[in-house]
Amino acid sequence: MTNRVPAVLEPRDSSGDPALAGVTGTQPTLRRLDSLRPNTRPPVRNAILSRISPDGLAALGECLEPIVLKERMVLQEPKRHVEHVYFVESGLVSLRVVAAGSMLETAVIGYRGVVGASFLWGGHLSTHQSVVFFPGSAYRIRVEELRRLVEERPEIREHLFEYVQALTFQCVQTGLCGVRHDREQRLASWLCLASDAADVRVLPVTHDYLSSVLGLRRAGVTQTLSRFEERGLIRKMRGVLEIDEPKCLEKRACCCYKLISGAYASSQSAIPAKELMG
């Protein structure tokens, strides 16, 4: 059961993040707003919340609920009403297109983003399935309450729009990547993007999982990961994969990795049309 948040988060030591330990987390520690020193920025980890002014975050805090993100938890289903928007603090959520018994991942969402922001375009139904695959924590807010707040506080709307632009770009670029780039490039790109999104080097992924979300043959995934390991780029362990040489792995990734990373780093920047083609 979740508790409504009348305050902001205490600073957290990321070395003790429950998501990094591979176990489900506990509810974040809270403190009252009036205990903050004047002009102190509320110390939240979510990249969107961290950019909102203290006054704006205080208004949001009245409506936010802390929630533990458990592995395989389904946050949204396609063609279902969107009830909550989730500001991810830790862990990873897989955004998927599901049709005719098949599934394809279009993006991973970590501490930089939110799940369920489609309401900004006036949509009431989810177009994707959102599933937690790396446990962690988040803050959720009812769509009706967030819709009211973005009308009252334009800065909240602005930060959400900036993120949605980057997320939309990733979804489109991922679709193009699937038909334009080879298996090794796609796997390297996915590992780099997931590592960035969670801000960790150890990912709880299996060969079966990667085969499923990327639409690749399992044997091919195993073969490619073995080559990465032989080159010292990664280390495979039971149920997890550790990235040992992120910079070298980035060189194996297709151009989609840099384009998507750039979109998140600066979603206001114009991306030339020729670059979108990869």
Automatic annotation (TrEMBL):
Alphabetical keyword list: DNA-binding, Transcription, Transcription regulation
Pfam families: HTH_Crp_2
CDD domains membership: CAP_ED (cd00038)
PROSITE patterns cross-referenced by the UniProt entry: HTH_CRP_2 (PS51063)
Signal sequence extent: none
Domain HTH crp-type: from-to ranges: 181-247
InterPro entries (UniProt xref): cNMP-bd_dom, cNMP-bd_dom_sf, Env_Response_Regulators, HTH_CRP, RmlC-like_jellyroll, WH-like_DNA-bd_sf, WH_DNA-bd_sf
Region (Disordered) location: 1-25
Entry annotated with the keyword GTP-binding: no
Gene Ontology CC: one annotated term: cytosol
GO molecular function annotation: DNA binding; DNA-binding transcription factor activity
Superkingdom: Bacteria
Full protein name: CRP-like cAMP-binding protein
Source organism (scientific name): Bradyrhizobium huanghuaihaiense
